[in-house]
Every structure is written in C-alpha cells, then in structure tokens.
Specification:
About 35% of the residues lie in helices and about 15% in strands. It is built from nine helices and ten strands. It has helices at about 45-55, 75-80, 100-110, 130-145, 155-165, 185-195, 210-220, 230, 235-255, and strands spanning about 25, 30, 35-40, 60-65, 85-90, 115-120, 150-155, 170-175, 200-205, 225. With about 290 residues, it is an alpha/beta fold. It has a single domain (about 20-255), classed as Aldolase class I (TIM Barrel), CATH 3.20.20.70. The chain has a five-stranded parallel beta sheet.
Length: about 290
C-alpha cells in the first residue's frame, strides 16, 4: 500500500465495505466520511444545509472573513451548522502573508474555541495559488502555538515533505486552481505526494465532478475537500450525494487494488476449444509467424 494514512485494507474479501471499519484519523480525531465540504458560494443557507446532509460529510470548512465574529456564534453561517454533527475547520482564506494567516488563526481559535485550522496563504491573486514559503513559515509557527494545521499547498513533493516535518496534521495539495472545476490535472504529482508522505493527503480545490473525486481516492488520497463543484451545481444537494458515492467508489477501488495495466490486448474468454477457430480447423496462427502469402 502507498505511504501516508490510507486506512486498513479489507481482510475479508467476502465482507461488504463498511466506512466505519476504515476510519480516517487526522490530528487524533476519527472520521468515517472521507468527503469534506466547504460552505461558500451556495445560493442560500437552506441549499447549503441540504447539501451537507446529503453528502454525509463530518467536517466543514468556513472562511473566517465570511463570519461575523462580533455576533454570537459567528453570525449567519454558523447559525445554520449543527456543530454536534459537523467538525468545524476554520480557514485563513484571504491571507497573503504568513503573519496575516497566523493572526487569523488565533482570532478563529479565540472566537470559535477550536485549535483546528485550514491554512491558506495565497501567493498570487489571479491564480489563487499558494505562497509555499509563507505556508511553511505559518505552519511552523501555528504548530508551535498548539494548532492542528491542515495547509493548502501544491503537489510539489519537497514542500509537502517540509510541511510534514513542520508538524502539519495533513497536507492538502490542489487538484487544480481554486474554483475552476478542471479536475485532477496534476494527478501524477499528487500520486508522488501520496506515495512519500506519512500524514493524510486531502486533495483540495479544483475538483469538478464526482469522477474527479473517485480518481483522487483511487490514487490513495485519504480524503477530498469540495466546495464550488457542489455549490455551483444546478442541484447542489444531488451533486453532494453524487460526490459521496464517488469518494466511496474510489476508496473501495484503491483498497481492492487495480489490475496492472497491460501493453497488449488479452482476451477475457477462453481461446481453447472455440468451434471453427483457426486452431480448431488447423489454420496457421499468423500472429505466431504462419504463412502470410
């Protein structure tokens, strides 16, 4: 099995897959669902709530800048979240320096009472790609300050290894630029990260359809985080449920172990004893070098 936290393989091939028997552990917390959801861009709160319910998620991320922290419970967004059901993952969206991200994280902990943080330090406003050096600096500081840090990053292997060394509880490489829905455009890079790091790999940003999530999970990702692909769908609750099944299918495929790719075609039916076949009537096998005249 590839490196990282990817759960235990099924020991009984005849037993149906049960997510409860294949838990994901991040920062000492156990999750049965490997689909995490964002809370932005939905047309209204009721649609967001319905999508969260249909997805089966157990962790949701909320941008601190979208909250009204001077109001009880953070204002509108948190008023619609059942925090007995969902683990809250505040994020530092909007931060462009390590110092700014650290301040936002501390504000979130003080206001919301959680030491979990999804770290985002944006390096380019056009592409919304992360500032990797700033992300690494902020991760080191926040870990020292007692946070459970899940940093948004690229699939750069060296950076992911450095984030793990810095104490990140997971790494969150992007599949594609935030909000684009382009899917797993750097699947090879993400696979390298999965194979090398020992912390969970949560594929974040850019997924467009459930098959993208399935592909990430087939590669061995521990989980995926989805927002825009669900929130901007024509039917967000239905799309959320579709992502739920995509994640489950991809996880099961990873645990089952795919067949090795073959360079040549291989018949799935027996070639021996087929009536009227070339071998049955004694014709030479041209593929084996028979008469080609």
């Amino acid at each position: 099995m590839a490196g990282g936290e990817h759960g235990a393989e099924q020991t009984d091939a005849a037993r149906p897959y049960d997510p409860a028997g294949d838990p994901l552990v991040i920062g000492g917390r156990v999750f049965r669902s490997r689909l995490f959801l964002g809370t932005g861009k939905y047309p209204d709160a009721a649609t967001m709530v319905a999508a969260l319910e249909r997805s089966g998620t157990e962790m949701v991320t909320v941008a601190i800048r979208a909250m009204k922290l001077d109001e009880p419970h953070g204002g509108d967004i948190l008023a619609h979240l059942d925090l007995r059901r969902y683990h809250l993952l505040p994020n530092t969206a909007g931060a462009t320096t390590a110092e700014q991200a650290v301040r936002i994280a501390h504000l979130a902990r003080e206001a919301l009472g959680t030491n979990w943080i999804k770290l985002e330090v944006i390096g380019d406003q056009r592409t919304l790609l992360p500032d990797l050096q700033g992300t690494l600096e902020a991760t080191r500081q926040l870990v020292r300050d007692g946070f459970v840090v899940l940093p948004y990053c690229t699939s750069d292997l060296v950076t992911c290894l450095r984030l793990e060394d810095a104490g990140a509880a997971a790494v969150m490489p992007l599949a594609a630029p935030i909000g684009t829905g382009q899917g797993m455009i750097d699947w090879a890079g993400i696979r390298r990260v999965i194979e090398r790091v020992s912390v969970p790999v949560v594929v974040d940003a850019g997924l467009g359809v459930p098959s993208d999530a399935a592909m990430a999970m087939e590669l061995g990702a521990s989980a995926v985080l989805v927002n825009t692909a669900i929130a901007r769908a024509q039917n967000p609750p239905l799309m959320a449920e579709a992502f739920k099944w995509g994640v489950l299918a991809g996880r099961q495929a990873f645990l089952a172990g795919r067949m090795p790719p073959q360079a040549e075609a291989s018949p799935s039916s027996p070639t021996e004893g087929v009536p009227f076949s070339a071998t049955a009537v004694g014709r030479p096998d041209r593929a084996a070098g028979g008469d080609r005249r």
